[in-house]
Amino acid sequence: MKIVILGSGRGSNARALLQAKKDGKLANTEIAGIIADVESAPILQLGKEFGVHAEFISAAPFKTKLDDDGQKRYIERIKALNPDLIVLAGFMRVIKKPFIDAFNGKLINLHPSLLPSFPGLDGIGQAFRFGVKITGCTVHWVTADLDAGPIIDQSPIRILPEDSVETLAQKIHAAEHELLCKVVAQLSQQNG
Fold this sequence. Notes:
Blueprint: E1 2-7, H1 12-22, E2 30-36, H2 45-50, E3 54-56, H3 68-81, E4 85-88, H4 97-102, E5 107-111, H5 123-130, E6 134-141, E7 151-158, H6 165-191
Helix pairs in contact: 1-6
């Protein structure tokens, strides 16, 4: 299964996938590329570190979504890489219907809450402020509705009385890395 990873920031989830691949835990996969919408995003450095193609593609001029030209650039470039799966790993842009239609059934997203609770930005902070006792992370199929696609799998995390937003974020990020690798491994088995 050929995978393209889209991200905007540090790339900790991309690193988890790349490390799992290197460790032989994603034997039926090939990571064909990493694409970032932020030119200085640390995720791009993972390309050099793991020997995977990595590139910046402008999504300008908006900070939260792809404009029509940006969307076309992304669709053309991703189609050239011919992936079986596109992983949104901290990609902080809302993806519109033409993009979703171009890759229907190939787009998954990792979200830091137990969807359908706390969709959108700052899922960890939303859950913490609301006072829920259990939150977690979700991998789901991407649809035109924000964070509302069919759920593939979830990992629950208990919020302890001594937790802060920061400690909760650390726990959720660790769970995200494990869950994402597990889901990709399962999808690659189904694909192969």
